[in-house]
Amino acid sequence: MAEALKARFGEDVPVRIAAMIARVYPGFDGAGFVAETLRGYAPLELLDRGRRIAHVLHRHLPQDYPRALDVLLRSLGPPADRTMGNGMAPFLYLPYVYFVAGHGLSHFDESIAAMHAITRRFSFEFGIRPFIERDPQRMLAVLTRWTSDPDVHVRRLVSEGTRPRLPWAPRLRVFEKDPRPVLALLERLRDDPDDYVRRSVANHLNDLGKDDPALLLRTCERWARDAPPPRMRLIRHALRTLVKRGEPRALAVLGFGHGASVRLAAATIAPRRPAIGESVTVEFELVSAARRGQPVLVDLRIDYARAPGAPRASRVFKLASFELPPGASRRLRKTVSLRQMSTRTHHPGRHRVEALVNGQPLALGHFDVRRPGMWHADRTAPRAPAPRPAIPEKPRE
Fold it and tell me: Rounded distance, CA 178 to CA 223, Å?
């Protein structure tokens, strides 16, 4: 089982923060801060640990917010490189985000300057949302200015901090009612020179599409006109959820709108009775039945067996997109893990498999998942112990 994220934000974090602050604020009671923080720290999850540290920081720093903020900002390390990656190191500044979000709403200018500085070390996407909800017009002016900021992390914050469905964050109701101001920000970022920013824009658009697919389609159709390749990659990522659903307009934007003229030449699924914790490999061959070349987008959809009484669930796996010449064939292969994960629990039963070819389903077969340890015909059956003979057999020479 994977290590819990909170375990990587352990008791060493408040110790490190205490040392950082003590270097710039000699009166800081580092030992008292750490001791108070760690009381009740162990049961807390990751985000609550960040909030806990921020709460105790507020008790040990000057009670005047601008003075306390000055201490925090002077304790910051150097800005991050171009991207922060997926590691936990930048989470060191999560308590700084919560400190500003929890105590800085009445100090707009100072807090905006702190956001700009902190997001260059750790994204301020969690902390910016209370400021947007409190004063959306004033924040929109700041965000518009930041769309042209020289720092890639600041530009990305404009998109990521306003995402409607940002993971681990509350919904932004003000922009759910009227997303037009946010779309204006995304327009300014759609051709950002850095893929780190464009990827965030795509994720933001994908979020919008979950609430208003028509709005996403209109936006992508408009953006696709004379779009350079980087913007088309953005659009492709933004439309991924609608493409998985086989939405014709989404497929049309990407050039796959008319279906594909193909036939299934062969399909294999092995093993046919995998156990939970193992993996299954699906392999199949498509042959063009068209008289001219055609663009083809192929995904794999698995209809999972569920627990008794639970609704069935499907998952779509990306495979490939390619130009298929007339009469040509293409072999595709995908190995899918059946390992139990925190985000997906596997159950015994029949799993149906389809290829989605330009959004149209093509049945490939099925496999039957079994519990670990169950014997099945795909493997050698366990032998029952032979009865002991009354007279010992003669040894073979």
Answer: 20
Beta-carbon contacts of residue 237 (< 8 Å; ≥ 6 apart) = 199, 202, 203, 206
Cα-based distances in Å from 26 to 19, 61, 69, 87, 95? 10, 11, 15, 31, 20
Asked which of 106-115, 117-126, 305-314 is least confident by mean pLDDT, the reply is 305-314
Token pair for 184? 């204006």
Could you give phi then psi for residue 358, rounded to 5 degrees?
Answer: 50, 40
Locate the domains of the chain by residue range. 5-204, 262-369
Instruction: Give per-residue pLDDT as tens, 245-269.
Output: 889 999 999 999 777 899 999 999 9
Residue 65 has pLDDT above 50, yes or no: yes
C-alpha to C-alpha distance for 203 and 161, rounded to whole angstroms:
12
Direct distance between the N- and C-terminal alpha carbons of the chain, in angstroms, rounded to an integer: 51
Instruction: Count, in order, helices (H) and strands (E) of the chain.
Output: 16, 7
Q: Show the tokens assigned to 335.
A: 């190995």
In this predicted structure, the answer to whether residue 2 has a pLDDT above a threshold of 70 is no
Q: What share of the chain is helix, strand, coil (3-state, %, to 5)?
A: 40, 20, 40
Q: Are 262 and 248 in contact (CB under 8 A)?
A: no
Chain mean pLDDT for the chain: 90
Whole-model pTM above 0.85? no
Q: Which helix (H) or strand (E) holds 270?
A: strand 262-270
- Letter for the amino acid at 287? V
State the pLDDT at residue 177: 82
Nearest to 145 by CA among 118, 178, 115, 102: 115
DSSP annotation string for 275-317: BTTSEEEEEEEEEE-SSS-EEEEEEEEEEE--STTSPPEEEEE
pLDDT of residue 246: 87
**Residue position matching structure tokens 């307009």:** 249
Give the position of tokens 């498509």: 286
- Residue 24 CA to residue 10 CA, distance in Å, equals 23
Pick the CATH number of 262-369 from 3.30.565.10, 2.40.50.140, 2.60.40.10, 2.60.40.730: 2.60.40.10
Cα 47–48–53 angle (5° rounding)?
100
Q: Pull the structure tokens for residue 382.
A: 């366990």
If you average pLDDT over residues 209-231, what whole number do you get?
96
CB 179 within 8 A of CB 215: yes
